[in-house]
Amino acid sequence: MAKYSKKAGEKVEEALHEKKEGKLKTGSGKTVTSKKQAIAIGLSEAKKEGAKVPKKK
Predict the structure, then answer these.
(1) pTM of the model
(2) What is the top-level taxon of the source organism (predicted)?
């Protein structure tokens, strides 16, 4: 099982809340509809900020 830092978990939680409210956008500006996509965006943002995120398999 992959281990994520607390900061990464918070970013994912934040992204899921934005998705639920309809405010989360993709890079091209479209609204995110998939939960998987929201999680990926949250992990990506956390990685940019230097949080511990395992590499993609």
Answers:
(1) 0.84
(2) Bacteria
Q: Please say whether the beta carbons of 4 and 54 come within 8 A.
A: yes
Do the Cβ atoms of 8 and 52 come closer than 8 Å? yes
3-state secondary structure the chain: CCCCCHHHHHHHHHHHHHHHHCCCECCCCCECCCHHHHHHHHHHHHHHCCCCCCCCC
Quote the CA–CA distance of 53 and 47 in Å, as a whole number: 6
The Cα–Cα gap between 15 and 46 comes to 10
- Among residues 16, 17, 23, 55, which one has the least CA distance to residue 38? 16
Instruction: Give helix 35-48 / helix 6-21 axis angle, nearest 10°.
Output: 140
